[in-house]
Structures are given as structure tokens and as C-alpha cells.
Design a protein that fits this description.
Elements lengths: L12 E3 H8 L3 H9 L6 E3 L2 E5 H18 L5
Antiparallel strand pairs: 1-3, 2-3
């Protein structure tokens, strides 16, 4: 990804491939996180969309989990 491609959350809803890019996760992991209730989504017709707020919340969740495990030996 070049500097020109740095992604900002400037949309309200993202298609699954866009969410994959934003979160650097595979399609299967995205859907796994959705099924687990860790990543919120909305449906518009047949389309599955991830709100920008859900992406921010998911990243915050990952950061929070990292802090909990910080300092534990791997």
C-alpha cells in the first residue's frame, strides 16, 4: 500500500472486500468475526455492509485485548 492509498474511514458503510482491506483480514476471518458477534454488520438487500463505527469498535476491541495480554509470556 502506497502513501496515496492510506485508507481513512470517510464512508459510513463498507462492503466486505473493503472491510477486508481496512482490517487486513481474509474474507473467512471477517465472516468468522461477524458470526462471533465481534464485528457488527448491517444488511441492505442481499449486501452485507460493515459500518465505519463497527470497524473502529473492532480495532478498539483488539487493542483492549492486546493490553490485557500485554506482559504475559507467549
Amino acid at each position: 500500500m502506497t502513501n496515496a492509498e492510506i485508507i481513512t474511514l470517510n464512508k459510513y458503510l463498507y462492503k466486505i472486500p473493503e472491510a477486508m482491506t481496512l482490517l487486513s483480514l481474509s474474507r473467512s476471518v471477517i465472516y468468522e468475526q461477524i458470526r462471533a458477534g465481534r464485528l457488527r454488520f448491517v444488511k441492505q438487500g442481499r449486501a452485507t455492509l460493515v459500518p465505519a463505527s463497527a470497524i473502529r469498535d473492532y480495532v478498539a476491541l483488539l487493542e483492549q485485548e492486546a493490553e490485557v495480554h500485554y506482559g504475559e509470556s507467549a
